[in-house]
Amino acid sequence: MIGFVRGRLIAKHPPQLLVDVGGVGYELEAPMSTFYGLPGVGSEVALHTHLVVREDAHILFAFATERERRLFRELLKVSNVGPKLALSLLSGMSVDNFLLCIEAQDADTLVRIPGVGRKTAERLLIEMRDRVKNLGQPGVAAAPGAAVQPATDAQSEAFGALVALGYKPAEVTRLLKAVDPAVKTTEELIRQALKSAVTR
């Protein structure tokens, strides 16, 4: 099991990362919660990881914090929740917001995440109730974003990342139009689009 990587960030195209660790390029998949805190390409990064082994691939997932990785691992124990859905959940809301959903038994917010239907949301509320206790107390929930324009490179990257997370292209277009026009970075575009998706 690979539990940790430290190296130079070579590329970041949400949800994929490429990190050079001693001359070896590690391809990783990370939730948007991790992307938001990443430094620029060429900088040193240190990430917690979780390796998923399938018949057709070995996929290394990366997380900015141990708390994110613990939640990811707990989500994988829920029936019918795989790595892709767990990544979507962590991309669509912070660990604290997820804990607040479980505490409030709020299925409506969970079903706004791509891939989470009503039955899956209800299963998460039941099965995660005891499992989230080791993740600490939730803090304060986040707020939504706001209005925008034709494609910049950052918007194209944000569009691709949101589609990769499971949103339909028409929904992505609508979400990006609701983002403040002053926003220029890919990470902030995605952050505001996801906030408006979860809180709309």
Structure, explained:
The chain is α+β, with helices and mostly antiparallel strands and 200 residues long. The chain folds into 3 domains: 4-63, Nucleic acid-binding proteins (OB fold (Dihydrolipoamide Acetyltransferase, E2P)); 66-135, DNA polymerase, domain 1 (Orthogonal Bundle); 153-199, Ubiquitin-associated (UBA) domain (Helicase, Ruva Protein, domain 3), CATH 1.10.8.10. The protein contains 9 helices and 5 strands, in the order E-E-E-H-E-E-H-H-H-H-H-H-H-H. The protein has helices spanning 32-35, 66-76, 83-92, 95-104, 107-110, 118-131, 153-164, 169-177, 186-199, and strands spanning 4-13, 16-21, 24-29, 44-53, 58-63. Strands 1-2-3-5-4 form a 5-stranded mixed β-barrel. A hairpin with a 4-residue loop joins strand 4 and strand 5. It is globular, with a radius of gyration of 16 Å.
Lay out the secondary structure.
Blueprint: E1 4-13, E2 16-21, E3 24-29, H1 32-35, E4 44-53, E5 58-63, H2 66-76, H3 83-92, H4 95-104, H5 107-110, H6 118-131, H7 153-164, H8 169-177, H9 186-199
Parallel strand pairs: 3-5
Antiparallel strand pairs: 1-2, 1-4, 2-3, 4-5
Helix pairs in contact: 2-3, 7-8, 7-9
Give a concise summary.
By secondary structure, this protein is an alpha+beta fold.
Q: Which terms would index this structure?
A:
alpha+beta; about 200 residues; DNA polymerase, domain 1; Helicase, Ruva Protein, domain 3; OB fold (Dihydrolipoamide Acetyltransferase, E2P); 5 strands; globular; 3 domains; five-stranded mixed beta barrel
